[in-house]
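Reply to dn_fold:

You asked what the input looked like. This is it:
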Amino acid sequence: MIITIDQIILEILRDADSFTRKDLLDVMHNCGLSVSDASFRYKLQKLISSGHIASVGHNAYYIARDNIHKYQHDYSEQAKSVITTVTEKYPKIKISIFELMQLNEFVNHQLAHNIIFASIESNFGEFVFDALKETHPGRVLIYPSPDMFHQYWHSNMIVIRKLVTEAPKDKKRPWAARLEKILVDIIADPLIVNSISESEYPNIYEDAFQKYAVNESCLFRYAKRRGVDNEILQLIKDGTQISLRTRRV
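and this is what came back:
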């Protein structure tokens, strides 16, 4: 069997918790490769795109296991309808869509009813509400309190929330809720918190980290913005077998 230079490079870095771009470049040089800045960037991006390397933070990478891949959710038809309505009418508005049934991939007790949470950047929620109530009459709530949310709750309801600044955003699908945002919001958002049992948190985190490449820096930066970074650290330490690569618990 012929072993490629890429396989040798990956094997050298395999046991590292994380490594930087400089670390990768040094290994390439030690393996006899002479690369320009442009070719190095191309090589790094190719390794990331192929799934061999995953980003765990700013200038921090690790060798991904074969079963690790980038999180991507196939949204329900109603969620797609919400996305289409908002993005066509207000293409420049920042929006993040999360639907409750996304969690069924991670929880033990399956959620039978769906709720779509549309997080909209500040000052634009009312415009989105007006657009959605025309296409989804009787199904839209805007900025509800927890009491109002539970009073008017019904399946397939659409809830407009204010988008928290610095919320993680997907590059290819900017309206899609990144996994890091979901992992924080299930603990920080009072409406979502009451929708699932706290006992499900460890399994959600374990499963997410096992299946997908979680950007820890992104996760904890957003968690700090929402005031739950220490709570999440404690959850990981006490309730899971997750070994963080960028910080110690």
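The domain at 5-63 is CATH 1.10.10 (Arc Repressor Mutant, subunit A).
Hope that clears it up.
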